[in-house]
Design a protein that fits this description.
By secondary structure, this protein is an alpha/beta fold. The protein has one domain: UDP-N-acetylmuramoyl-L-alanine:D-glutamate ligase, CATH 3.40.1190.20. It has 10 helices and 13 strands. The chain has a 9-stranded mixed sheet, sandwiched between helices. A 4-stranded mixed sheet has the order 3-2-6-7. The longest helix is centred in the last third of the chain and has 16 residues. It is globular and about 50 Å long.
Amino acid sequence: MEKQVLCFGEVLWDGFGAEKKAGGAPMNVAMHLLQQQIPTEMMTRIGEDDLGEELLVYLETQKFPTQFIQRDPELPTCLVTVHLDENGHAKYTIPQPVSWDNIQPEKIGVKEAFPFEMIVYGSLACRTPTSLNTLLLLLKNHVFKVFDVNLRPPHYNLNVIETLAQNADVVKMNDEEMLLLSPQNEQHASLEDKMKEFSRRYHVKTVCVTLGGNGCIVLHQNHFYRHPGFKVEVVDTVGAGDSFLATFIAGLLNQLPMEEILVNASAIGAFVAGSYGANPIYDLEKINAIKQQK
């Protein structure tokens, strides 16, 4: 049977001025997993409002599975304001409370309805006790757990981040997040030493740190792997990290060598950074051309 993935967390609208695009890191990861033929479901909550209806219609047109998308009669569907700087890097203004702050435990066990072998989760939807406790219930299942740190100040606290890390088999973050999550006495240590200490402190088997345009570094089974990244003309960075993570996950599920996983993940991440929006349809010719870079 094919390995199946459950993504947990926020689904929302990213507002770019007058235009809006469906987004949310866990949803973006799920979209990319589905493009890579990995059976994936999403557990989230949207409002019983016009924005929620519009989001459901969009997801259904994308053939995105919706069986674990809950509806909230009171809290609104989330509309985030995205600010892009001159380099295409995004800053987000995220309202609170919204529907995905209230993700409820399913009355019928999700594992029974969808026998997932991996769960992917981030920190944003864990800003409220309700959604956090629902996630912690899911994490009691004996499945492979991937934590995408994805900090959105001020929507996190370090105690929750530590709890989420302690539950994970894989933790993915960027270099700024690695610095933030390192104790004061490690601030001047090398990135590799910070990663080793993080792995030891939280008993995490695989730590992946992305370095923006400079690629990534991974500590996996006590061995370091690096990729310098691929150069593209950046259109916007929205979803680039999510596409990288999805490709990384697909590589793990397909038991590819780590070197090959990093080439694939870096190429997809570069392709998305060079495209508009978080979920462009893959252009295999462009992606293969990116991989050919020397």
